[in-house]
Amino acid sequence: MGANIQIFGKNKCFDTKKAQRFFKERGVKFQMIDLPRFGMSAGELQSVKRAVGGLDELIDYDAPDAAVLRYTAYEEDRERMLLERPELFRTPIVRCGREAAVGYQPDAWKRWLEEK
Length: 116
Known about the structure:
- There is one protein chain.
- By secondary structure, this protein is of the alpha+beta class.
- It has one domain (5-115): Glutaredoxin, CATH 3.40.30.10.
- The protein contains 6 helices and 4 strands.
- It has a 4-stranded mixed β-sheet.
- The termini are close together.
């Protein structure tokens, strides 16, 4: 398969594990990025944010300490906080080229694989 898949996730996240299994079962190689450990670059954040329809899609509002993001007015400040505290991202974030999906989204992933 020609798909270039990246999975930004957390080791203890069940949906991240399900995403890994989805691609393994189909023989699709992927790059796994441990989000709390390695984070995401500012450029990656911008690309993913555009692909998923905005910053709010990327925030795990159920995470401890995430409430502060809900009440931070400026998007630039929220982006900075996410980059500094990558455990506040909703996971998995799966990227394929310019496309991305947040959470367990097998229908989107199937579509990407069919297009490649």
